[in-house]
């Protein structure tokens, strides 16, 4: 169901990774072929004491259409908050953002999203608000489940599915609604290795077989970067860098090594 610049950090100063020209072209001042764009996005909450607490600070990033990008960063760095803003679930305090629509948000815990009795009912649920015939709904549900490798589970009760299968059903819900952007919040956190790879491959093959669907995937798992075309790394509410996965991976590994050295020195 479907419900960079580098900013200064204490230890590292790296240059902005520009978006390759093949990914984005400028015309009349607007960036074309981008699925997601944020400029100077900030988000604050008001504490019980009445003080403003910044959660996101001056975040800028651009993600081209048709690609899988990863969003990484330590706990509490603001990844989920940024994703919720992009999904329209939170309103930024300042800045500008644009996301191609329709967009779909898939939660970390599939039990919060996959709630109808059977797989086909769950994928069809969001379609009830469109004026579609029964045949159109059936066709969309079948195509969406096929895209995530779950077609044979059409009639299955959802409580018999594994966590990874439920995640794929949740993604199918967004695909059935013809979402152009999939916002995927730590889908593999609770999954074993087999389910993890199954979900990520389902997203990859969906993007490969469709026209211009883009996915932004929040993760803590560095090894998942091998599936991505691009990545964004956040710390303390800021986008520290964004660009190609090997460079981001090298940066994070250097950061982790420095942290471990600091602990043991
Ligand atoms: N409504 C809120 N009120 C107060 N603090 C909040 C609120 N929402 C988020 N925060 C804080 O903002 C910070 C960023 O939270 P967020 O969930 O976006 O981080 P994250 O990078 O997704 O973390 P994790 O990897 O642990 O899921 C955290 O310190 C969190 O406690």
TrEMBL record:
<dbReference type="GO" id="GO:0055085">
    <property type="term" value="P:transmembrane transport"/>
</dbReference>
<dbReference type="GO" id="GO:0005524">
    <property type="term" value="F:ATP binding"/>
</dbReference>
<keyword id="KW-0067">ATP-binding</keyword>
<dbReference type="Pfam" id="PF00005">
    <property type="entry name" value="ABC_tran"/>
</dbReference>
<dbReference type="InterPro" id="IPR017871">
    <property type="entry name" value="ABC_transporter-like_CS"/>
</dbReference>
<feature type="domain" description="ABC transporter">
    <location>
        <begin position="36"/>
        <end position="261"/>
    </location>
</feature>
<dbReference type="GO" id="GO:0009941">
    <property type="term" value="C:chloroplast envelope"/>
</dbReference>
<dbReference type="GO" id="GO:0016887">
    <property type="term" value="F:ATP hydrolysis activity"/>
</dbReference>
<dbReference type="InterPro" id="IPR003593">
    <property type="entry name" value="AAA+_ATPase"/>
</dbReference>
<dbReference type="InterPro" id="IPR027417">
    <property type="entry name" value="P-loop_NTPase"/>
</dbReference>
<dbReference type="GO" id="GO:0016020">
    <property type="term" value="C:membrane"/>
</dbReference>
<dbReference type="InterPro" id="IPR015856">
    <property type="entry name" value="ABC_transpr_CbiO/EcfA_su"/>
</dbReference>
<protein>
    <submittedName>
        <fullName>ABC transporter I family member 10 isoform X2</fullName>
    </submittedName>
</protein>
<keyword id="KW-0813">Transport</keyword>
<dbReference type="InterPro" id="IPR050334">
    <property type="entry name" value="Molybdenum_import_ModC"/>
</dbReference>
<dbReference type="InterPro" id="IPR003439">
    <property type="entry name" value="ABC_transporter-like_ATP-bd"/>
</dbReference>
<keyword id="KW-0547">Nucleotide-binding</keyword>
